[in-house]
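Journal club prep — side note

Before the paper discussion, L.F. wants everyone to see what a predicted structure for a comparable chain looks like in token form. Sequence:
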Amino acid sequence: MPTNFYDDLIDNPTPRCPCMLVLDVSGSMDGEPIKELNEGVNQFIQAVMQDDFASYAVDIGIITFGGKAQEIVPIKSVQQVDVSTLSATGSTPMGEAVNKAIQVLEKRKQEYKNSGVSYYQPWLVLMSDGEPTDNYKVAATKLRQLAETRKMLVIAVGIGDSCNFSKLSEFCPSDNPPRQLTGLKFQEFFKWLSQSVGEVITKSTPGVSFQATQSTNGWESF
């Protein structure tokens, strides 16, 4: 197995689709929500691994925010990802987490360019059951602008009745507002996510914006 990113590029020069999961693990997620989130994340990774194309093309990273923003899985090939069990605690520093995710994805894009590897539009998946407890405005504006200029695909998902969708929408372009998760259907969401990423890889061209067509009916609350 490659020991670092550049070794991986030599062994596997497949065009890449970088995907950052930015996940709320604050105290309010304790109990059944964090349990379902853990199962959903693991299901997502396994589903991508089982896809003949995506298993070579998808790079995954995970940043959690609960008390502080932590890069618990540095972005790497899905084949190298090992996720420890997420636990819920603390406040909701969403702005800090999004800033960190943007920095990681921008650095990753530069690594692709330096190595001559083409890449698909990066994905940033933001999930929260509350609202930011930090100074999030700058991060929200930057992420929204990246999405509006088609430099990043942003998928924001609100969990439960306490999610502040007004603030969550500040992170999103106007044509792709946040979605609400039905109950605790994390596994259904991550199944949809793996199918959508797979569709992008098989039906689009690196560097060109593409809108996945997978239905959200299985997990989205309308």
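L.F.'s comment for the group: The first helix runs from residue 5 to 11. Keep this in mind when we get to the figures.
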